[in-house]
Amino acid sequence: MPDLIALEVPLTEDLLPFSQYLWRHGMAHRILEINDHQVVFVKRIEQIDSVRDLYERLGRGETLPEQPDLPKSPRYFSLLLRRVPITLTFVAISVIVFALTSFDDQFLTALTFFRIEQGSDGIIFGSMQQQYWRLLTPIFLHFGLPHIVFNMLWLWDLGRRVELVQGPLRLISIVALIGVASNITQALAQPSLFGGMSGVDYGLLGYCWIWGWLRRDPVLHVPVPIMIAMIAMLLLSMTGLMEFMGMGAIANAAHVGGLIMGLVLGLATILISKKPVN
After folding, report:
1. Are 84 and 92 in contact (CB under 8 A)?
2. Does position 77 have pLDDT exceeding 70, yes or no?
3. Which fold is adopted by the domain 84-273?
4. What is the mean pLDDT of residues 80-86?
5. Residues 40, 31: contact at Cβ < 8 Å?
6. Which residues contact 195 (CB under 8 A, 6 or more apart)?
7. How far apart, in whole angstroms, are the C-alpha atoms of residue 192 and residue 188?
8. Angle at the Cα of 102 from the Cα atoms of 97 and 103, rounded to 5 degrees
9. Which whole-number Å values give the CA distances from 257 to 32, 35, 118, 193, 202, in the listed order?
10. What pLDDT score was predicted for residue 245?
11. Amino acid 79: pLDDT
12. What per-residue confidence (pLDDT) applies to 217?
């Protein structure tokens, strides 16, 4: 799990006594100079509120307690629900849809990009007929346990980073835009039954990478070896080798479309955020 930002304070402020206090009471942390600020990072979500509360008390001139009430055993799920509710919601929807579609084909066909009809010569992929939810809903479809496990792990890692740093509304927006873009790209490349969060995962990967690269954001930063490995996996799957090895058909166009959209959104939001605040 990436380090989490607990505080950002001016460079002119002496954090050494506060840092010593935290270490003395077993609160592991680190302080880095980023964008003309001192940024205090902690390891666990539940530590953020404790550090902020202690810092605010110090700022009010209060004497910090000799035995502070620091979190020892986290109430993990409730804290996650407070900090990353949208990431958890996307994971929950995907798992629920996976369970439902495993037992009900009609539920599956209601969420596919193309309307699936049974013709005299077999399955026919028809138009969506103004059922515009189909532009997005294929991201929640998964075919097999390895498929959903792999996609949810990446969604949990990357989506949580974006939500922690930039908030739930930003995550909802970019997941929706990346999802629609990746689905449309796959539909144009190959009209068929497809689904999965992997196009969104590649988009979030691109989004986080460009923020980490251009803005040096430590939470959104994606290590270069991971980025290279994911791109290599994408290129390898485009050769057809992974399908040949029995891993099933892979929606490569969705991956490419999602990655490109993620990079575009990342660059656009960086450029917008550079504008001065009125």
Report:
1. no
2. no
3. Rhomboid-like fold (1.20.1540)
4. 82
5. yes
6. 111, 112, 138, 139, 140, 141, 142, 143, 251
7. 10
8. 105
9. 35, 32, 29, 17, 9
10. 57
11. 63
12. 81
Mean confidence (pLDDT) of the chain: 85
Q: Which two tokens stand for residue 40?
A: 């205090």
Catalytic residues: 198, 255
Cα distances (angstroms) measured from residue 189 to each of 46, 125, 173: 45, 14, 24
Number of CB atoms found within 10 A of residue 156's CB: 17
Classify 218 as helix, strand or coil. coil
The length of the chain, given as a count of residues: 278
Taking the domains of the chain in order of start, what are their residue ranges? 4-75, 84-273
Q: What is the pLDDT of residue 126?
A: 72
Q: Given pLDDT bands bounded at 50, 70 and 90, which one contains residue 120? A: low
Q: Looking at the domain 4-75, which fold is it? A: Alpha-Beta Plaits (3.30.70)
DSSP 163-206: HHHH-HHHHHHHHHHHHHHHHHHHHHH--S----SHHHHHHHHH
pLDDT score of 172: 97
